Amino acid sequence: MSSLKKTLYGRCHIIKNWSDWDYSIHCDKSQIDRQGRAMTYPFTFKVNEHTKTARFSSTSSLPYYDTTLSSCTCADFEERKLPCKHIYRLAVELDILEIVRRPSFNREKLEYVRNSPDIDNEPDQIKRQKSGMSSKCKPIEIDYENETALFSGSSKSPYITTPTTCTCRDFFVRRLPCKHIYRLKYELNNYNS
Ligand SMILES: [Zn+2]
Ligand SMILES: [Zn+2]
Questions:
Q1: How far away, in angstroms, is 5 Cα from ligand 2 center?
Q2: pLDDT tens, 56-80?
Q3: Are residues 136 and 94 in the same domain?
Q4: Is position 109 within any domain?
Q5: pTM of the model
Q6: What is the pLDDT, as a whole number, of residue 1?
Q7: Domains in the chain: how many in total?
């Protein structure tokens, strides 16, 4: 387990030395998104293990993208000059790295937050308090007497929130206060004072 931690950058578990990039760039949020897409995007590709290159199908006017471990002909790479989803996938296919599950759903990390003496001050919880206060996270309806609220979300039916539970996916997965719970508590406090 300790050796895994040393080689984990973003969602990249580096197996073989990948000297084309400074490992720290794989920890950026925008890179972590690409690491996820490398595994879920429905592209087709052909890897040449000998030259360590690949040709990926494209959905743009270009018929394909040519990818190496340090470059790609796709627009994303041309613009950012940082690993795109094709480069990450090539690295996976060449057994240079492994894309691990989303770190926010990492069980060990969740256990750590759950056991914290001050859960609301854990960085992952502070993030949820902030997004709970954004204008996008506005309750549709608050029942002050019963301390419940309805929030609109990505699914069709609204989320039903109480100070300790919520029907959103974040709460379902983490069993820790989500942004809706934080927002409801804030609204209830404001109402009572
Ligand atoms: Zn690319
Ligand atoms: Zn929620």
A1: 30
A2: 998 777 889 999 999 999 999 999 9
A3: no
A4: no
A5: 0.55
A6: 43
A7: 2
Ligand nearest to the CA of 185: 2
- Tally the C-alpha atoms within 13 A of residue 162's C-alpha that lie toward its C-beta: 4
Q: Do residues 91 and 156 both lie within one domain?
A: no
Tokens of 36: 């996820």
Regarding whether 84 and 31 lie in a shared domain, the answer is yes
- Express each pLDDT in 135-181 by its tens digit: 989 899 999 999 999 999 877 789 999 999 999 989 988 899 999 99
How far is ligand 2, taken at its centre, from the CA of residue 177, in Å? 7
Q: Provide the 10 A C-beta neighbour count for residue 170.
A: 20
- Please give the distance, rounded to the nearest whole angstrom, from the Cα atom of residue 15 to the centre of ligand 1: 21
Tokens of 97: 């790295």
Q: Do 95 and 128 fall within a single domain? A: no
Residue span of the structural domain in which 181 resides: 118-192
**C-alpha 103 – ligand 1 centre gap (Å):** 24
Provide the β-strand partners of residue 159.
Answer: 151
Distance separating alpha carbons of residues 31 and 29, to the nearest angstrom: 5
Q: Tell me the pLDDT band of 2, cut-offs 50, 70 and 90.
A: very low
**Is 88 domain-assigned?**
yes
